[in-house]
Amino acid sequence: MDLRALDPVARRAALRARSIEIIRAGQAGTGAYIASPNFRTYHYCWLRDGSFIAYAMDRVGEHDSARAFHRWVDRTLRSVAHKVDRLEAKARAGEPIALSEWLHTRYTLDGREGSEDWSHFQLDGYGTWLWALCEHVGMTGETGLLEEFRPTVDLVVRYLSLFWDRPNYDCWEEHGDQVHPSTLACLYGGLKAIAAYRPDLDLEALCQAIRQYVLTHFVHGGRLTKFADGRSVDANLLWVAVPFGMLPPDDPVMQATVAELERRCVTGGVHRYPEDTYYGGGEWLLLTAWLGWYYARVGRRDRAWDLLRWVEDQADPEGNMPEQVCERANDPTMIQPWVERWGPVANPLLWSHAMYLVLLEELGG
Ligand code: BGC
Fold first, then answer.
1. What does the CA dihedral 4, 7, 10, 16 come to, rounded to 10 degrees?
2. Ligand 1 atom at minimal distance to the Cα of residue 171
3. Where are the alpha helices (DSSP H) in 198-268?
4. Would the pLDDT of 84 be above 90?
5. Which of 356, 268, 257, 264 is nearest to 315 (CA)?
6. In b/e form, how buried is each residue of 193-222, taking b as 16+ CB within 10 angstroms?
7. Are 170 and 122 in contact (CB under 8 A)?
8. Which residue lies with its CA nearest to atom 1 of ligand 1?
9. In the structure, which protein residues have their CB atom closer than 6 angstroms to any atom of ligand 1?
C-alpha cells in the first residue's frame, strides 16, 4: 500500500512504525546499525550515525535495541584499545600518524576495521557515543552499563583528551586539515555528559577549554561559522545548541546562526552547506528534522511542525526515507557523477529515520 495515500494522521503513525521497523531490520545480531542497507558504500556502522540512531530508539522506548548498540561499541572499541597507547606514544614523540592508525570512524557490522581507504580520523562520533550512552543510562536507569563499559569509557575519554584540538575530518568526512566547531560540540556534549556520572575523571576544565576554543575561533559577526573564516555556514552548527548544549538554543549567537542557515541552507528542506556538491548537494532529511528539533526547543512549534511535514513528504510509497532529495540541489550537474560512482542516493538511511523519530517525539507525536 502507498503510505502517501493515507490521511496525515494515519500516515504519521505508519511512518513512525515503519521507521522503527527499518531501524530494527538494519540492526545486525551484533547490535551494529548499518548506515543504509541499499547503498553498498554505507554497509558499515558509523559511530556517529549509530549513536544518534540509538538515541532515537531510546526516545521511542526501544531500549533493548539501543543497549545492544552500546554493547557492540564496547566490544568493538575493546578490540582496538591498544591503538590508543601507540597513538599516545607517537604523539608524545612528535611522530607523524597515518590515517589508518587513528581509531576508525566506522566499523564492519561484526566490529572489525574495514580495509578500504577512508577518512578515518573523525573525532565527533566518539563524543557523540559518550553522549548517547549517558542519554540511554538517563532514560533507563541502567547505571550498571557504565561499570560494564568502564575501560571503554576511559579509553574514549583518554583519546578525546589527547587529540581534541587536532585537525580531523568533520561529520561530513571532509576538511581533515581543520578543526570543526560541530565536532567540538560533540566532544563537549559527550564529555559533559559522562562527567556527571564520573566526577573522578575531572573533566570540567577540558569541557570549558573546548567551549572557549569554539567561542574564540568560530564566532564572527555575532554568529557561528563553519570555519574560522568569518563567512562560512553549515547546518551542523545546530548541534552546538541541540543536543550538545554548548550554547543555549535561545542564545543570540545561536539565533543569528539559525537566521543565516535559513538564508543560505534552507530551500524547503535543509542543505548541509551552500557549496556542497555530494549528489549535487541536495536537501537532507536528517538536517531538516534537526532544524525542527531546534525550533521545538525554542518554542517555535509551528515552524517545527512544518519541517516535520516536509520530511514526511519525502518518504517513498513504502515509507523509506532517503539521505537527501536532489530536486533543489546546489549543483545539479553533480548528481549524475555520484550516481555513476556509487549508485542512487542511499535509501533508506537509518539516520534519516532516527532524526524523524526524534522530532516526532519532541513534538509529542
Ligand atoms: C556522511 C556522513 C555519514 C555517512 C553514513 C556520509 O555521506 O557525510 O555524515 O556518517 O555518510 O551515513
1. 40
2. 9
3. 204-217, 252-264
4. yes
5. 356
6. bbbebbeebebeebbeebbebbeeebbeee
7. yes
8. 172
9. 35, 42, 46, 48-49, 171-173, 351
φ, ψ for residue 275, nearest 5 deg = -90, 0
Q: Count of domains in the chain?
A: 1
Q: In degrees rounded to 5, what are phi and psi of residue 110?
A: -95, 20
Mutate to test the pocket of ligand 1, among 106, 172, 341, 351 (most ligand atoms within 8 A of CB): 172
Which domain range does residue 277 map to? Answer: 3-362
- The CATH number of the domain where 343 resides is what? 1.50.10.10
Q: Burial code of 135-157, b = ≥16 C-beta within 10 A, e = fewer?
A: bbbeeeebeebeeebeebbbbbb
pTM exceeds cut of 0.85 = yes
DSSP annotation of 18 reads H
Residue located nearest, by CA, to atom 6 of ligand 1: 172
Question: Confidence band (pLDDT; 50, 70, 90) for 365?
Answer: confident
Residue 273 has pLDDT above 90, yes or no: yes
What is the percent of the chain where pLDDT is above 70? 100
Q: What is the mean pLDDT of the chain?
A: 98
Catalytic residues: 170, 173, 323
Cα separations in angstroms, 117 against 35, 97, 113: 18, 15, 11
* Residue located via cell numbers 546499525: 33
- Residue 266 has phi, psi (to 5 degrees) of -110, 125
d(Cα 282, Cα 113) in Å, to the nearest integer? 30
Furthest C-alpha separation in the chain: 64
If one residue of 44, 171, 279, 287 were mutated to test the ligand 1 pocket, choosing by the most ligand atoms within 8 A of its CB, it would be 171
CA of 331 to the centre of ligand 1 (A): 19
Q: Whose CA is nearest to atom 7 of ligand 1?
A: 172
